[in-house]
């Protein structure tokens, strides 16, 4: 598997570490426990198809990446810096 | 006061030569990491240019050659090799002295590409990875910065503590490539 890092270019999967679903970009604002925190920490879909998750390019530029990929075909559909994606959401 | 003897990271290890390929140590006067503050990349680059004559390199690139050079080393970060940085840069970027933190090696000669290709997953094809190009990637299991500095020359930067392992791995690769060539 290869991921095309926006900064480093096409790189081998051994350079990356998987974190999890893009849900991690939307941390609940409240400090106390709530249903939002339950969602954020525990509840995930397990799609057969397109999903978006976070990867860390630890052996490269050390950027967090938001990767859109297909779990059925293993295609990598889109890669962007998580920083940019987060800013785009405000 | 004890007078300590300064040793370079590869002092007892290099140079080595296997057939046409040599591995030697490079010891720039200083290595400084420069991380421009939010939105200050251009300003820091201008300040670096007026103080030292080189701009900040974009992703995967290096700038300058000879005595002072800058190489891109990651998101929002570059290392300046060769001179102590002007204090005038401090308002624009986080600077940290890394002079003794890195082992810097030069791999040179015909077949150098084949040696590196045994250790790193990046594409070293001269049409893809050209002079002035830089990659942060792996050298074996080590994080490394790899730069092409000539048609048949690379520079490799690893953490100082990894110097012994890096030299060992590179020497093994150099010998393996030479042994393979001898069979032809």
Key phrases:
heterodimer, A: 4-stranded antiparallel sheet, two-stranded antiparallel ribbon, 2 helices, 37% strand, globular, B: 184 residues, Gyrase A, domain 2, 2 domains
Structure, described:
The complex is a heterodimer of chains A (90) and B (184). Chain A has a single domain, classed as Folate-binding fold (2-Layer Sandwich), CATH 3.30.2270. Chain A has two helices and six strands, in the order E-E-E-H-E-E-E-H. Chain A has helices spanning 35-42, 82-89, and strands spanning 2-5, 9-12, 17-21, 50-56, 64-70, 76-81. In chain A, the strands form two sheets. Chain A has a four-stranded antiparallel β-sheet with strand order 3-4-5-6. In chain A, strands 1-2 form a two-stranded antiparallel ribbon. Chain A starts with a strand and ends with a helix. The radius of gyration of chain B is 17 Å and the shape is globular. Classes of the chains: A alpha+beta (90), B alpha+beta (184). Chains A and B meet through strand 2 of A and strand 9 of B.
């Amino acid at each position: 598997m290869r991921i095309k890092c926006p900064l480093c270019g096409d790189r081998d999967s051994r350079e990356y570490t998987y974190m999890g679903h893009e849900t991690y970009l939307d941390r609940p604002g409240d400090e106390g426990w709530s249903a939002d925190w339950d969602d954020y920490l525990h509840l995930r879909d397990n799609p057969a198809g397109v999903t978006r998750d976070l990867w860390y390019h630890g052996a490269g530029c050390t950027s967090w990446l938001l990767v859109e990929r297909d779990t059925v075909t293993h295609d990598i559909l889109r890669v962007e810096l998580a920083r940019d994606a987060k800013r785009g959401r405000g | 006061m004890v007078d300590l003897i300064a040793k370079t990271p590869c002092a007892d290890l290099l140079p080595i030569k296997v057939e046409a390929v040599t591995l030697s140590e490079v010891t720039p006067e200083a290595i400084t990491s420069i991380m421009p503050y939010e939105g200050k990349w251009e300003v820091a680059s201008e300040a670096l240019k007026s103080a030292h004559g080189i701009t900040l390199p974009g992703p995967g690139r290096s700038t300058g050659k000879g005595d002072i050079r800058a190489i891109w080393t990651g998101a929002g970060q570059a290392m300046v090799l060769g001179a102590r940085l002007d204090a005038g840069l401090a308002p624009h970027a986080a600077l940290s002295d890394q002079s003794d933190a890195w082992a810097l090696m030069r791999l040179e000669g015909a077949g150098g590409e084949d040696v590196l290709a045994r250790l790193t997953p990046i594409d070293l094809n001269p049409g893809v990875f050209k002079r002035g190009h830089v990659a942060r990637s792996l050298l074996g299991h080590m994080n490394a910065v790899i730069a092409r500095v000539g048609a048949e020359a690379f520079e490799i930067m690893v953490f100082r503590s990894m110097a012994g392992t890096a030299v060992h791995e590179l020497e093994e690769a150099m010998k393996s490539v030479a042994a393979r060539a001898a069979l032809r």
